[in-house]
Amino acid sequence: MAGYRLLTALDPITLVEGVARIVVVTDGNDARALYQIMEFRGFEKLAVGRHVEELPRIVSAICGFCSWAHHLVSGKAVDMVFGRRPPLRAELTRMLVNYIQVLDSHLLHFSFIGLPDLALWGEDRRDVVKLLAKNPGIASLALKTRSVLRRMEDKLLGKIQHGPVVLPGGVCRGLTKEDVAELERALAELGKAVEELRGFFNERIVRSELFRSLLEREEFTMRCYSMGLVRDGALELYDGALRVVDPKGGVVSELRNPVAYTDIVGEALASWNHATLPYYKPAKLELFSEESTIMVGPLARLNVAEKIPSEEASEEYGKLVDVAGGKPLSNVVLYHWARLVEIIHSLGMLGKLVERSELLEGELVDLAGRPGSRGVGIIEAPRGILIHDYGVDDSLVTTRARIITPTTINNMAINTNLSKVSAQLVGEIKSTGRPSPETVATLESVVRAYDPCNSCATHCVRVGGRELTVSFSIVVLDERGEVLWQG
């Protein structure tokens, strides 16, 4: 970024959560939109000096929406440190927890952010309150699914968030027949609500001229690498091979040993961001270039998978691919549809899990195993690949922790994506003094499509009785570093 003037210079940190903004800078010729993750979280330092078996409980507090993902992936890393392989019953329990949190997070974003963004495009407000006013039935369904999932998590896991489930080599509690019966009732209730949401999306969004036009816009297109887990080539959310496909859809890497993730994921530092900028290592680093950018999350997962295990989700996936004109899926607006596919998939997989007798029978913990000095866990959090990498001493006390979140991995993709709108934005500022509502909507929609933690975990402050959201802002600077526009 030599030659550019920035409003602030920020020291980088891998963990991301909370406040973010877009800063647009120019050197007089070139214009660049930067997505700045402003929040600082020091969980990697907090982990050092702790007994490694404590980490699954500690790191679950990193995020309010992905607390179970951090808990589970930390457990996988600790399993490796202890040299333990969880029994089948414990693995199935962990998988069930993961599907529940994917459902919870996806339904929240799909209903409260995705649908308002697309259904109310071009309007002055695009939020669930306005969606409720215009489509009360759909918005009410969204609220209902949230209530059912919160009740399910509280009943089955003991707490809605940050509850203890994982032990080194297993889980602390198995499900009972009563738990399974409660889960089956909840799944039936959720299934009906999801079917109505699916109908609304397919009829009102997918068939709209707006949606088709968005799929043709270059600003929403990312021709980059996609990374996700697969099991025998199929979509996998808990444990599988880490696969990368190139911008043309060809498989360029597939790792079965999680420790080898460092061969494909590099991290660049940026003075203007608290988060690093991960990239696909074999392609070398070129900032804001699609050729070295790697993308994770629901859309990337559909790119790396050859098939979807659940029948209904496979049908919806087929429609998505057909409307998109085939794979790879390069338009980020399709992230919203990909979440719907995974919502249907998670419901289907949960339905299969509760039918398995092994969920109620067998050992919960494996106490055998030979401890080692390092443990790496990889899982698909709702927003994409999540990696925990721990080093320990002979007493199994943590000496090093590295945590790479999905939003961190997508940091380069978001910044690269935003750069496609930069010149148009600066041109509007210089000619009229402010960007057009359409351009602002495009900037925000690009960011929201990735579902970064910054957008979901909104931070609010109260000033004079008025609640102000400070989690997202846009600042445009000229070549001297002076503010041209802020909103």
What does this entry look like structurally?
This protein is 43% helix and 18% strand. With 487 residues, it is α+β, with helices and mostly antiparallel strands. Strands 5, 6, 7, 8 and 11 form a five-stranded mixed sheet that branches. Strands 2-1-17-18 form a four-stranded mixed sheet. Helix 4 (88-119) runs antiparallel to helix 11 (334-353), helix 6 packs antiparallel against helix 7 (177-206) and helix 10 (311-324) packs antiparallel against helix 11 (334-353). The longest helix is centred in the first third of the chain and has 32 residues, at 88-119.
Average pLDDT reading: 83
Shape: globular
> What is the CATH T-level topology of the domain at 84-221 and 331-368?
Cytochrome-c3 Hydrogenase, chain B
Question: SS-based structural class?
Answer: alpha+beta
Residue ranges: pLDDT <50 for 5 or more in a row?
Answer: 2-17, 455-472
So what's the CATH class of the domain at 84-221 and 331-368? Mainly Alpha
Q: What fraction of residues sit in β-strands?
A: 15-25%
- The helix fraction, in percent, is 40-55%
Separation of the first and last Cα atoms: 23 Å
Q: Looking at this structure, what is the CATH superfamily of the domain at 84-221 and 331-368? A: Cytochrome-c3 Hydrogenase, chain B
Q: Rg to the nearest angstrom?
A: 22 Å
Total DSSP E strands: 18
CATH architecture of the domain at 84-221 and 331-368: Orthogonal Bundle
Report the sheet with the most strands, covering strand number, pairing sense and barrel closure: 5 strands, mixed
List the total number of helices.
15
